[in-house]
């Protein structure tokens, strides 16, 4: 009994010390705020001390552009060959020669592509999957979005293989060289995944111009990290027995890697491929701003002109393409996870790959028919539909009948919630934020984490972006908080009821597939532009991790512990509060971390609907081709995400260690 009491006292003593430390720290920050007349430099960073990092970056980019233009032109020319081929094959026509001697070869027939999509789904999964994938492509055709959809698909078809190959080789190198993974690869991946998508476009626009090649390079850079991480994870999880067996069999290092380890890691690699495809699709939509064209450009033009119906129609086409690619890649990944390998049953190609052979034959026949029958070459306008008038009418009806209610809700939210929180964040002393975040880093991870967090926070101040940074923190924080308020209870209900989980799972799967653009369109219809629109769209985009991780965390609690709690006389409520929730808390907090990162990514895209934060800085820099301004603002956004990620990961690691 004495030992137990002394142990309890030893555990509570550090907690009490930290409570005192935090109370003193908060009191010091409050004192700085109250004495801001005497200490103005501690509240608002002095303009005279701003470091012109943006000017330095602009000068560096201009230097690169002027001295290495030969290299950028060579890269553009080299990448333009396969990209032009894919775009001509899917969306345009091949033009050979000039003037009167020009020969035009047709693009692939839309009929053949739809049938090939059906066959791909059937080969990867079942007739149902084939009908879904083929139906998505047919939907794009019948709603008049075929050419734009194929432009988007053409860019993806070139960017994705580049991402997969690059990610595979970088992942192999990082797996073989732990020092490279620790010092180079992981920090680079963190930065690549937290820098906002718009920030990728600015250097690409400056170096490679306004062209599809710029969009493809930006897409490839953005979508490569998941493949690198999947490769490292897959290789690290290969059982040691397989590794030992390959050495006993006399395999060389190269043979062991390509014939043993990578095939064994194939399930994880296919998950990485799925993530690459979805990120590439998301980025291609955003890259429409620098010449990608396609569905994203249609949405952008419609939003700029406030054509709600056209924006919604193009947005739904994006959704259809995203669902088709996601379900198809997931089915292929599941086949590899089950160890499904296609055996050679005949030397003839068509017997080994009947669906592929049939798809090629149908594509060839329908494309040749397109030379004589125009209905095969292009989607006849007589069979296309448009829902743009319907969406416009629906929005007008809602606006007329519910304008007062919507406006009252919007104004109340702005006046009572958003404006006070924004004023608090923007008025928070920059020195106090550096001190408090550094203190949190020291408590959770020691001196190294404290120095990292403090240094990244100081960067946002010394570059003159403190007010914009805090505006981003305000909108991201309140959106993530509301997303957690909604998502965690839903995840809790899903974890306690299989019936609820069956309803929730397809909904969050669909939300996770939707590109970020698609969340903005319906909200803009009802709430116009501004912070309310950004907040609602961000909540819808970021709520998925809160639901998924809460459900997973509670369901992975060992049943033996739950039974032990019941045997000891605990009620359902006590079992949940004292056993399940504490054990699931690390996973729940990981979900909160992911929710914050997704909210941050979406907030930046919401700069298109009138927010005034770092996203607006990037957006303005993109429109002016100001590389320094855009890259520095992008780094500030990335540093916000890295700070949140590092602190939450440190907290989760401590919680796991405490729970054993």
From TrEMBL:
Gene3D superfamilies associated with the record: MetI-like (1.10.3720.10)
Superkingdom of the organism of origin: Bacteria
PROSITE patterns per record: ABC_TM1
InterPro entries, per the entry: MetI-like, MetI-like_sf
Transmembrane segments: 15-35, 42-64, 70-91, 103-121, 127-144, 151-175, 195-223, 268-291, 311-328, 356-379, 394-415, 427-443, 449-466, 473-494, 514-547, 588-610, 630-648
Record localization: Cell membrane
Main location: membrane
Keywords (A to Z) from UniProt: Cell membrane, Membrane, Transmembrane, Transmembrane helix, Transport
Membrane in keyword set: yes
Membrane topology: Multi-pass membrane protein
Residue ranges of domain ABC transmembrane type-1 in the record: 149-329, 469-648
Keyword Nucleotide-binding: no
Similarity field: Belongs to the binding-protein-dependent transport system permease family.
PANTHER family documented for this protein: GLYCINE BETAINE/PROLINE BETAINE TRANSPORT SYSTEM PERMEASE PROTEIN PROW (PTHR47737), GLYCINE BETAINE_PROLINE BETAINE TRANSPORT SYSTEM PERMEASE PROTEIN PROW (PTHR47737:SF1)
Protein name as it appears in the record: ABC transporter permease subunit
Biological source species: Mesorhizobium onobrychidis
Lineage, uppermost ranks: Bacteria, Pseudomonadati, Pseudomonadota, Alphaproteobacteria, Hyphomicrobiales
């Amino acid at each position: 009994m004495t030992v137990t009491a002394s142990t309890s006292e030893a555990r509570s003593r550090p907690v009490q010390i930290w409570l005192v430390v935090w109370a003193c720290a908060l009191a010091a920050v409050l004192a700085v705020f109250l004495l801001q007349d005497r200490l103005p430099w501690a509240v608002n960073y002095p303009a005279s001390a701003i470091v012109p990092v943006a000017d330095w970056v602009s000068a560096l980019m201009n230097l690169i552009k002027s001295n290495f233009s030969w290299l950028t032109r060579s890269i553009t020319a080299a990448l333009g060959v396969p990209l032009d081929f894919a775009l001509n094959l899917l969306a345009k026509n091949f033009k050979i020669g000039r003037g009167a001697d020009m020969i035009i070869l047709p693009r692939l027939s839309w009929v053949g592509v739809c049938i090939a999509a059906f066959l791909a789904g059937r080969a990867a999964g079942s007739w149902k999957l084939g009908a879904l994938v083929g139906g998505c492509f047919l939907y794009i055709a019948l709603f008049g979005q075929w050419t734009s959809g194929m432009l988007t698909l053409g860019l993806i078809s070139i960017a994705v293989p580049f991402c997969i190959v690059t990610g595979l080789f970088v992942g192999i190198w990082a797996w073989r060289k732990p020092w490279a993974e620790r010092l180079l690869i992981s920090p680079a991946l963190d930065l690549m995944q937290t820098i906002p998508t718009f920030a990728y476009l600015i250097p690409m626009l400056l170096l490679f111009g306004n062209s599809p090649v710029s969009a493809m390079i930006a897409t490839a850079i953005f979508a490569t990290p998941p493949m690198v991480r999947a490769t490292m994870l897959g290789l690290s999880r290969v059982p040691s027995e397989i590794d030992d067996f390959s050495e006993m069999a006399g395999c060389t290092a190269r043979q062991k890697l390509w014939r043993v380890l990578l095939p064994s890691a194939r399930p994880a690699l296919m998950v990485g491929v799925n993530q690459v495809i979805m990120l590439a699709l998301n980025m291609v939509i955003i890259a429409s701003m620098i010449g990608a064209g396609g569905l994203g450009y249609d949405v952008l033009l419609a939003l700029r002109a406030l054509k709600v119906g056209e924006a919604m129609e193009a947005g739904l086409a994006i959704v259809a393409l995203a669902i088709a690619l996601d379900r198809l890649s997931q089915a292929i990944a599941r086949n590899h996870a089950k160890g499904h390998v296609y055996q050679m049953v005949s030397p003839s190609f068509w017997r080994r790959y009947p669906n592929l052979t049939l798809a090629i034959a149908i594509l060839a026949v329908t494309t040749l028919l397109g030379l004589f029958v125009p209905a095969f070459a292009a989607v006849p306008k007589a069979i296309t539909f448009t829902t743009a008038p319907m969406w416009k009418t629906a929005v007008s009806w809602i606006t007329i009948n519910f304008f007062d209610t919507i406006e009252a809700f919007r104004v109340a939210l702005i006046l009572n919630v958003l404006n006070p929180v924004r004023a608090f964040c923007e008025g928070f002393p920059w020195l106090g934020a550096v001190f408090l975040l550094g203190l949190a880093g020291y408590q959770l991870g020691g001196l190294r984490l404290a120095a990292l967090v403090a240094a990244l926070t100081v960067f946002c101040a010394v570059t003159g972006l403190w007010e914009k940074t805090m505006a981003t923190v305000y909108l991201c924080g309140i959106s993530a908080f509301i997303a957690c308020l909604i998502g965690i209870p839903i995840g809790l209900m899903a974890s306690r009821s299989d019936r609820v989980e069956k309803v929730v799972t397809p909904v969050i799967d669909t939300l996770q597939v939707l590109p970020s653009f698609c969340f903005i369109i319906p909200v803009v219809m009802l709430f116009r532009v501004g912070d309310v629109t950004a907040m609602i769209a961000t909540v819808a985009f970021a709520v998925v991790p809160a639901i998924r991780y809460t459900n997973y965390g509670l369901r992975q609690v060992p049943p033996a512990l739950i039974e032990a709690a019941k045997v000891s006389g605990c009620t359902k409520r006590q079992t949940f509060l004292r056993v399940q929730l504490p054990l699931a808390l690390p996973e729940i907090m990981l979900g909160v971390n992911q929710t914050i990162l997704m909210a941050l990514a979406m907030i930046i895209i919401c700069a298109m609907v009138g927010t005034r934060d770092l996203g607006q800085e990037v957006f303005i820099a993109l429109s002016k081709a100001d590389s320094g301004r855009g890259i520095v603002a992008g780094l500030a956004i990335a540093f916000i995400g890295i700070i949140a990620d590092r602190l939450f990961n440190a907290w989760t690691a401590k919680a796991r260690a405490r729970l054993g």
